[in-house]
Amino acid sequence: MKQRQLPRYVSExxxxxxxxxxxxxxxxxxxxxxxxxPWTPDFMAEYxxxxxxxxxxxxxxxxxxxxxxSFDELIAIYYSAPAFAGLKPSTRTTYRGILERFRARHGSxxxxxxxxxxxxxxxxxxxxxxxASNNLLDRLRGLMRLALDLGWRKDDPxxxxxxxxxxxxxxxxxxxxxxxIFEACHPVGSRSRLAETLLLYTGQRRSDVVRMGWQHIxxxxxxxxxxxxxxxxxxxxxxxxxxxLEREPRENPTFLMTQYNRSFxxxxxxxxxxxxxxxxxxxxxxxxxxxxxxxxxxxxAGCTNKQIMAITGHKTDKEVGRYTAAADQxxxxxxxxxxxxxMERDLKTV
Length: 350
Description:
This protein is mainly alpha-helical. It has helices at 41-51, 71-79, 82-85, 89-106, 116-124, 130-150, 176-185, 191-202, 206-209, 239-245, 266-279, 287-300, 305-312, 317-323, 329-341, 344-349, and strands at residues 10-14, 20-24, 32-33, 217-218, 221-225, 232-236.
């Protein structure tokens, strides 16, 4: 029998009972079997309902393997929710890692049964890794908001649960001495020195630095579209950076290339740069620490928060404050006294 013409994603087949069936089938969607005859008004209404995801909703990963009402099911639903789908790919990967570790231990437990004391016990067991505990608490709060929206709970057991107070300011901000040590170990002409200079003189994240190439340079400025925040920046190129960039082939897609002549991924670059720091004996220094050092240098030079934001892409004074906390207090104090009381001459003669 000749197949009749049907709309896109719709096919006709004979089932195991010999009955002809018409089915909507699209990747990532649940299948839908039509009740009405093809091309009738009722059929077209069903077809439109499939297209917009009502009669053929999106497939939820892992949904069919989960116990109803469990954290397994809630996390599977969260992965398809707008709150998760709208995140940057790198953020989704981070969140998924946190949730999957929690899921491995508690996935089969019922969402409605978890209480405040259970949350406190789980977080208390992570006292040796307070930052990881705080990250998990943030993700659990998101899950509980979803559970409230779904009607699975009438309260939020994470409400007013305190996070660990962290003494650390996060990634270590490189000192001028450490910058000098790295540069002594990795001379001009090496990929390591180019990577360090790009990070230090642009103040950008590794995810943005690995995508930089000659196509982003115009009028002695480098254009940056930040991957994490979508912030667009035009940053003047420092002479120290430009002298290194001039050595790089213009046909390469990016300035930083692997030993296999391919562009780095953000994660791959982070691992590679970790080894380069270790080679210089800077085991506590990271690529992100150079972003903080760039902000520190700007603060020590007397730049305002707005000026620093124009380089780093931060959006609030609080965010900038975390990065400029390592600014040289003595130098800033001298600048303040000189500006307020004209003490610069006196300071030089003491």
